[in-house]
Amino acid sequence: MLRSSVRFLVGRLLPRWAYPVMRGPLRGARFILGSLAGEGGGSTVYLNLVEPEKTAAFVNALKTGQVCFDVGANVGYFTILGSRCVGTSGKVIAFEPAIRNLAYLYRHVLLNKAENVTIISAACSDSETLASFSSGKNCAEGYISNIELSGPASGEKVSLVPTITLDAVARHLDVLPNLMKIDVEGAELSVLKGAQVTIRKARPKILMEIHSAELLLSCSAFLRDYGYRLEAVCPNMDLPADYLAQFVESSVSAI
Fold first, then answer.
1. For residues 94 and 117, is the Cβ–Cβ distance under 8 A?
2. Which of 58, 174, 219, 227 registers the highest number of CB atoms within 10 A of its CB?
3. Do 80 and 126 reside in the same domain of the chain?
4. Do 97 and 192 have their domain in common?
5. Residue 35's CB: how many other CB atoms inside 10 A?
């Protein structure tokens, strides 16, 4: 209760400036108060309290010199964390379609001098086109939507955003990921379908948030065909929940 009250006061009383993280793997990194979703203007980031289990799994999955695809980068928490993990010899490719989040993402990359980060302002899917994007209930919950089902009736803003495939990005940039972090509010399977060549070639670890039981079944079946096993980052947690997929078989049925 006390900790929650402190976060509330921090979010209400402090100006919306960039403050340093005080502990954890992002210690010293700076994030703008109010940029992240959550109570206290997202002030949990300064105390290393943002998704601790997922953060630990992310850090353990990356090594110096590796490549990370941050799909659904939001304002850059995992982008900056990945930048630190891979170092100057590695790369982070961050994907984010929401204009509000992109503005903070660029600012956080500049504030933290993350020169190994490339930002792509698009949503990832299984095709290259334009799609309607709904703002969601907060800045962390934007999603690809049916434009006829959103808008004024739901109180959400809708805009058109470009979609790309991870296979196209990997091909154009001539880079293969060691880790794909995916947080796309229900579009998980579409992202995976757009990364089939990349998955087959690179066999990256895949850290993804899955938003429904149906998606858990379909993503598990899809990845199983590529020799992957899906494990919950935090067992017994209700959906949406984070899962880590790793290649475990020497031969797969996918062509």
1. yes
2. 58
3. yes
4. yes
5. 23
As for how many domains the chain has, the answer is 2
Tens digit of pLDDT at every position of the chain (255 positions): 435 544 544 545 688 899 999 999 999 999 999 999 877 778 999 999 999 999 999 999 999 999 999 999 999 999 999 999 999 999 999 999 999 999 999 999 999 999 999 999 999 999 999 988 887 666 656 677 765 544 445 667 888 999 999 999 999 999 999 999 999 989 999 999 999 999 999 999 999 999 999 999 999 999 999 999 999 999 888 999 999 999 997 645 544
- Between CA 46 and CA 209 the distance in angstroms is 23
Q: What is the DSSP string of 235-255?
A: TTPPSSEEEEEEE--SS-S--
41: in domain: yes
Contacts of 1 (CB under 8 A, 6+ apart): none
Name the pTM for this structure: 0.89
1 lies in which domain range? Answer: 1-49
Total Cβ atoms within 10 A of residue 51: 17
Integer Cα distance of 36 and 80 in angstroms: 13
Give the contacts of 194 (CB within 8 A, at least 6 positions apart).
124, 125, 126, 127, 164, 165, 166, 167, 168
